[in-house]
Each structure stands twice: as C-alpha cells, then as structure tokens.
Amino acid sequence: MGRAVSSGSAAAWLAEPQGAARELRFYARVFARSGASLLGLGLVALFLLLAALGPWIVPYPEDARGAVHLDQKLQPPSARHWFGTDEVGTDIYTRVVLGARVSLQIGLIITLLATALGVPLGIVAGYVGGPLGETIMRVTDVFLSVPALVLALAIVGALGPGIVNAIVALGLVWWPGYVRLVQSKTLALKGQVFVEAARAVGTGRLRIVFVHILPNCVSPITVKASMDMGSAILAAAGLGFIGLGAQPPYPEWGAMISHGRNYLPTWWWYSAFPGLFIYLTVLGFNLLGDGLRDILDPQSRG
Asked: DSSP string spanning 234-294?
C-alpha cells in the first residue's frame, strides 16, 4: 500500500515538469504563428544585445564622453564612420549604439516605477474598495485626464532638465494605467469561486491578495509593461528632443535628433540614424507585446 502511494506521488512529481513543457511548447506554437510577433522578438533581442555589448563593439567609445574631433566634423557615412559624424566630429554610430543602453535603462526604470506605484494601488482600489478605493480611482482619473507627456513636461519644468528628473517625471505620470488595469482585474477575480472559497475558510486578506489575486494579474501586467517599454523610451526621447531630458554629451537618441535637425537636409545622417533606432525599438516592443497578449490572454486568441 505504501509502495503504491509512493509510486503515485513520484508519477505526479514527474508529470509536473512534463505538463509545464507541453504548456511552453503550446505557447511557442501560438507565438510562432505570428510573423509580426517574431519580428518584434528579433528587434527587441537586437536592442538588448546592443545595450549589453555596446561598450565593447563601438569603435570610438571616447566619443560618448565628450571627445572633440573638429577635423572630422559632419562627415557622411563611410567605412571609417558607418553612420557619419556630428558637428564636433564624434562618431554617430558609437553614440547611437551606446544610446541603446541609456534608452533601455530609461524604459526599465520608468516601467518599474510605474508598476511599483500602480499595482498596489490598483489592488487596494479593487479588493478593499470603499472610500479608500474611490479616492484612489478619482485621483487616477485626474491624472488620466491630463496627457502624460504634458504633465511630465510640467514636472520636469519644476525639477529642472536632466535625465534623472525626466525619468522621475515620466514614472510619476505612468502609473495610472496600471491602477486601472489591476483594479478591473481585481474586481473580476474578487467574485471568483476560488477567492470566495478562500475567504470562507478564513484565509486572511493579505494571503488572498498575494496567493490568489496578484498571481492572476501578472499576465496583463506583463503585456502592458512590454508595450510601455517602447512608449517610455519614445516619451523620454521626446523630452530629450526639447532639451528637458538627457544633456550633452550624454548619448541619448532624442537629444541627438534635436541637435541634428539644425543640419537638415544636407547632413541628414545626424538625425536619421537615431530616429531609425527609436522607430525600430518602439516597433519591436509593440509587436512583442501583441505576441505576448496572444499567448497570455486566452480571450484574445478567440
């Protein structure tokens, strides 16, 4: 009898990784059906690779630290300078590649800050409700009624220009979307049978939130965060473009486009290559987010 129980336990233990492997294969098949999702994954992988290896693959790393080569200024793309040079002779390829790491840091910090603020508030608003929940949602509505970039401009104007202030400003205006998302998901989960059963047996609120509600919110949060990465990078580039984000000689794409517009159309490469990298990066994160939504949201698969 004991041997039979032991065999059954071993079989169940072995079945768990097999089930997880089948689920992963299913997710991979769903993802692979979409060429756009694979393109997004490839673009994001390339962006991450550039961010990770940038300092070791650029030919002139000193050009990202304020080096000046006036004898090489505004040279067109060539074998020596793949993306040409700027008005002080620095290599644009070097600055664009190193700018990938800057943009990745900006996107990650903004998304993590917004998630850290929005997710707890959304759970409180959805699960606790009452006057506290109403207060949270009304404050959220106020933030959502003002365009995020306009509000970020006001915050950066008060704090002063700079990459850190731009990140803080964007993080402070990015959280309302997560509150809305998590609050609606929490309200839907709150009435589910498994939550009612946990409450009926005397499970505490914190345990219900962390064991039953929060894990079921991970999928929509992941999808939104993947799309927000591209949006955050684009918003930070916008602040850099108008001079409120990264300051020279920091290699940031938006600031590079801002400086390069003064030399259009003759020296087009100055703005074209940073703009192309912004476009491809944002496109990659958006396409990847669509693919993740197809996998993690069964209803979207129809």
From this structure: HHHHHHHHTTSSS-TTS--HHHHHHHHGGGTTTTTHHHHHHHHHHHHHHHHHHHHHHHHHH
